Amino acid sequence: MSQPFRSSVSYVSSIWADISLEYKEDHILLRSFEPLTVLSSALWGGGLSKATHFVNWKVPLTYRCEDPAQMTQNQLVAWGYPPESTIGLQTAAKLTHAAVTEEEGDRFRMICCATAGTSNGARAGKARRTFSAYQCGTINIFLLLDAHLTSAAMVNSIITATEAKAAALQDLGIIDEQGNIATGTTTDSVVFAVSQNIRYGAPHQFAGTATTIGNTVGRLVYQAVYEAIATQEEP
């Protein structure tokens, strides 16, 4: 596990040189040399898309905006990033405490970056006060893979990542406003980006916890989320 931005402003993957991460004071930029196929719940560029830039933008706790997507687009332009090939998330968590994990395995290379704050922890499945729209991610997970996956395996990977996030919160004892163990926060986002590199041959068809790729997704997400949460109160 690593928190590179507590002592540096840049990080280059040791296993995938095409991926770089930069800390820019009010955002983290993950950049890929080649476009990646992305499935995400992102505020900007969400759904199924192609992207080379991935932004985690820190907004203040007092942040209020009636059109956060438009605000994000405007900010991307101001930073000089191409909106059409950028995925944008927002967070109020400490960017300096972002945790990065990576691993090379069975026909894949994988990098995970997570930021996490849990002041609005919540447990899925419990009744609570709800809102018609509530944006601004609090636990933000970026998973970048050099691999070949079916569309179903991409969705399966997001399920596995979500289970791992919930497990990290459970092991840390994070609770919601009613005292229940939290499974996430009310505003989480996940970005899953894959190269679809055909040099790996036949695609991974599944990404559950019993598969080589799914097990790695789970472990890297768990480690990154756990570390990002556990150190949030540290300077």
Structural features:
235 residues; alpha+beta; nine-stranded mixed sheet; 3 helices; 11 strands; 23% helix; globular
3D structure, described in words:
With 235 residues, the chain is an alpha+beta fold. The chain has helices at residues 68-79, 151-172, 212-230; strands at residues 10-12, 19-23, 27-40, 47-58, 86-91, 99-105, 108-116, 121-122, 139-146, 184-185, 189-194. Residues 132-137 have low confidence and may be disordered. The two termini are 18 Å apart.
- Straight-line distance between termini: 18 Å
What characterizes the major β-sheet? 9 strands, mixed
Number of helices: 3
How would you state the average pLDDT, rounded?
A: 92
C-alpha geometry: globular
Task: Give the SSE order as H and E letters.
Answer: EEEEHEEEEEHEEH
Low-confidence segments, ≥5 residues, pLDDT <50? 132-137
Strand % is 25-35%
Q: Output the structural class.
A: alpha+beta
Counting DSSP E segments of at least 2 residues, the number of strands comes to 11
The radius of gyration over CA amounts to 17 Å
Q: Work out the oligomeric state of the chains in this entry.
A: single chain
Helix content: 10-25%
